[in-house]
Structures are given as structure tokens and as C-alpha cells.
Specification:
alpha/beta, Rossmann fold, 2 domains, four-stranded parallel sheet, N-acetylmuramoyl-L-alanine amidase activity
């Protein structure tokens, strides 16, 4: 079990402890950060990639203006639409699959 709260962030106050002793500041959105880390917020789009398809995932995430993650962490993030790069599946229910016979074909499908 992971503990995600303000008291368990490693490196807090260590960005520049001499010139910025209160970094990141009193207005830092801690609540939003922890909700995102715990997967409590749902995003509109998420690009999920398999090993070797990072380039296509990067371009598609740039096009959709969304985050991208490796398939091993796909269940930890809630999204209305998940775009699976290099992974076979059937489109539907907010899941979109882009998998060709090789990386070039996969890239063509994803872009």
C-alpha cells in the first residue's frame, strides 16, 4: 500500500532550501496532485503504449494533448478514452486499439 500525502513526499523543501525555504509554496495544489496520483480523477484521453511503441505514443499524445503511460500501469489511471498503441483489441466502450503488423504499420494506424 502506497502512502500518498504531504507528509510522505521525498524531497519536499529540497528544491532550493537556502533561497526558497517554502518551495513549492503555500498555494501548491496538493489535493489535486494526490487525487491524480491515486487515480481518483478521470481524464478525457490517455495513450497507453506497449514496449517499442513509445514514438507513436508520444506523437499521438501530443496530437490528443494528453498523457501517455506504459501498459503495465493502464489500470491505475481512469480515462474516458484509452488509446492502446501496439496492443491488439476490439474498439468500443472508450477503448481504441492501434496495432499493425510492425511498428511502422502501428504508427500509420495511430496517426
Amino acid at each position: 500500500m502506497r502512502i500518498l500525502d504531504i507528509n510522505h513526499i521525498i524531497g519536499h523543501y529540497r528544491i532550493d532550501s537556502v533561497n526558497r525555504p517554502n518551495c513549492p509554496g503555500t498555494k501548491f495544489p496538493w489535493v489535486r496532485l494526490f487525487a491524480d496520483l491515486k487515480g481518483e480523477n478521470e481524464v478525457d484521453n490517455l495513450v497507453i503504449y506497449a514496449d517499442g511503441d513509445v514514438g507513436t505514443a508520444l506523437l499521438l499524445s501530443f496530437k490528443l494533448k494528453c498523457s501517455m503511460i506504459h501498459k503495465a500501469f493502464a489500470d491505475e489511471v481512469h480515462a474516458k478514452n484509452k488509446h492502446w498503441i501496439g496492443i491488439l483489441g476490439t474498439n468500443g466502450n472508450g477503448n481504441y486499439y492501434y496495432a499493425g503488423s510492425d511498428r511502422i504499420e502501428t504508427a500509420k494506424l495511430g496517426l
